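Pipeline run #58 for the internal structure catalog. This entry was flagged by the ingest filter as a single-chain record with no existing model, so it goes straight to prediction. Upstream metadata was stripped on purpose; only the residue string is passed forward. Reviewer on rotation: M.T. Logging verbosity set to normal.
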Amino acid sequence: MKSGFVGLAGRPNAGKSTLINALVGEKVAIVSSKPQTTRSEIRGILTREDCQIIFTDTPGIHKPTQRLDARMNKEAFDVMQGVDVIYLVVDGSVPFGKGDEFVLEAVKNAGLPVFLILNKIDKMDDRDIMKNLVSWQKRYEFAEFFPMSAKYNRSFLDLINTTKKYLPEGGLLYHEEIVSDGAENFRIAEMIREKILDFTREEIPHAAAVKIDNKEFRKDACYIQATILVEKDSQKPIMIGKQGKMLKRIGVEARKDIEKLLGRKVYLELFVRVEDEWRNHDHLISEYGYGGAGKDE
């Protein structure tokens, strides 16, 4: 049996979270069209009779403008030092840029087998796909390359079987029923934040954090209280919405995902609080579970 770790690296919005969910067959990472959705390392675990692969989704590597950004970049770099294989996930539908070059250099320095995952080929024709693959192969000698659409592909068997060949011999690292090692409260908070990303605009999504204040199981239901944090007084009424409609919409949609996770009825109560410049304070970043703090202790 083979077992080992695969780190997913790439620019923001390259499709890493979509890919890890597809590989595991369950939603373990939130997905949004907005960049920098992933703020902390998230592991998805695939277990078969012949192998167990732990896929690690990392924050998209980007030029930092705040302390949170720097923490996210550091975590992505750290992950690349502790895996057996790296998937470099790139959005094939957009031109190669400085951000791609920065990520590629980081991947090269890891000294590990690197698979090029040319993603979003559903937005490309066959000629562009081939030109893109040739162009990337000139930049680096990748161990393997896979053009695909993480969003629409139905089978990843070839990718999984090929990955297995690069992993060491070993037994199960996680119980076979586990699909993620993320803390339950962190996963719940992320489900709420996903809806904030979906429904709010401009600076609000990136200024928001979610903190689980209380979670109580009673009989067949779970009662959860959570606080959404924003950075400015002007953002609070936008998050709440007219007559509380935005906050209610976020809560209703998040509750559906949380019920699937917990397998029971959920009563979710949301609050909004202003926490000035929280993205520039290490202790708050850690308290809210971002930049490497989202694991069970």
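catalog note: The chain has ten helices and nine strands.
catalog note: Residues 13 and 33 are 7 Å apart (CA to CA).
status: ready for reviewer M.T.
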